[in-house]
Write a structure and sequence with these properties.
About 0% of the residues are buried. This protein is mainly alpha-helical. About 90% of the residues lie in helices and about 0% in strands. Helix 1 (about 5-45) packs antiparallel against helix 2.
Length: about 90
């Protein structure tokens, strides 16, 4: 692999990671804004029952898994598996 192709590959990888982090931050911002709105509606319409929590909890599970996929070790684990498979294919 030449230096130019290595630099190009590293740049593509860095762009994918940056895009994933930006995507998560947007997801987090939308989650906060929407759930703040639901909280306000809940407090105005039926303060005796906190129904907004169901949406916050359900969506929160998805947000948590998104965050783990972006910032957790799974990304590194996937890269190691890809490298191992590439090595197997190169040995053939």
């Amino acid at each position: 692999m030449t230096d130019d192709s290595l630099d190009h590959e590293l740049r593509r990888k860095a762009e994918r990671r940056a895009d994933a982090k930006i995507g998560f931050r947007i997801h987090l911002l939308v989650y906060a804004v929407v759930n703040a709105g639901l909280f306000a509606i809940n407090m105005i319409t039926s303060p005796g029952y906190l129904w907004f929590m169901w949406a916050a909890l359900g969506w929160g599970v998805g947000l948590l898994s998104h965050g783990l996929a972006v910032y957790g070790t799974d990304g590194d684990h996937r890269e190691r598996l890809i490298e191992a498979e590439l090595e197997k294919l190169r040995r053939r």
